[in-house]
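hey can u check if this looks right to u? its 331 residues, i copy pasted from the old doc so theres a chance i mangled smth
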Amino acid sequence: MNACFRFACTVVGVALTSVIAPADEKPIDLRALANEPWTYEGPNDFLIINGSTFPTSIRNFGGIAFAIPVEPNNYWAGAAAANFGPGTVSLTIPVGVYGVTSVFTVLNSMWGWAGPDAYLYITFTGSAGATKTVPLVGNVNVRDYNQDGNTNSINNTSTVEVWDNGQGQRLDRQEYILPEEFLDQTLTSITLTDTGNEGDGTDGSRAILAALTVSTCEAVPAENLRVASSEIVYEPTLKLYTQEVSLTNTGSLPVEGPLFFILEELPSGVVLANKSGNTECLAPLGSGYVVPLPAKSLLAPDTSVRFRLWFSDPSGAAIHYTPLAAIGTAP
């Protein structure tokens, strides 16, 4: 049996699980900010009404809880804010959370242009002057929610796919790690700036923001890691199943430990025999994890760390799980 690793395989559809957000995560309520419904009618009477197929309510996307507004106004659309015309529009979202370490968005473009230029920007503002602006570049960290002829690629590190309706629409999750100066400040607001144009065919991008979560968690999902695994095999002398896993640093900078490998959605009849603990911060809570890279250790670029997982399976259940690599102090 093989586990399908989110960093090493293409996921067409992601199962959604309703969760209660852990105390370290605060899904931001966007209901009052979602703008007016719009309707698109395509070939063969294909109809989209303001993201009518999008998932709603509290959802777990890759260990992070999000609150997606209930339709018909279930996201903010830059195109609707611009009245489907040209010009810059923006959305400022009040936050008011102290000590934020990372921010996550469920964000795509209605239509977009590939980089290197950016037409969307997200800015984080702290109560004592801290600020950070991240450009959202087409085919890098943002793409169309429609699988069409425009932007269809993402980097699969800071931006990963988290939902697919099987009808040509998808949603992606972005991760932004804030500078240390935000630890001693309140994150007062987040501003999404959309500088796109409509219909001239030269440049532009119009955003759709479905959800936003801020986190004070001491661990965050890791970037720039490729995960590979062997088959799960039975060791009769130990009466345990085992699997070898490797994590490879594909980035240009070292990854600093501790590095956590979390096994989400492990069947209830299966026990991770060599786990270091259970998650109390990253959803779904209670997931077992191991620590393949200890604190004060470094995983250099283009190098790997290998480790074994041991499973007890007296129930005979199929062993499968969704992996999540995280860095920080504790998950």
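Residues 221-328 form a domain with the Immunoglobulin-like fold (CATH 2.60.40.290).
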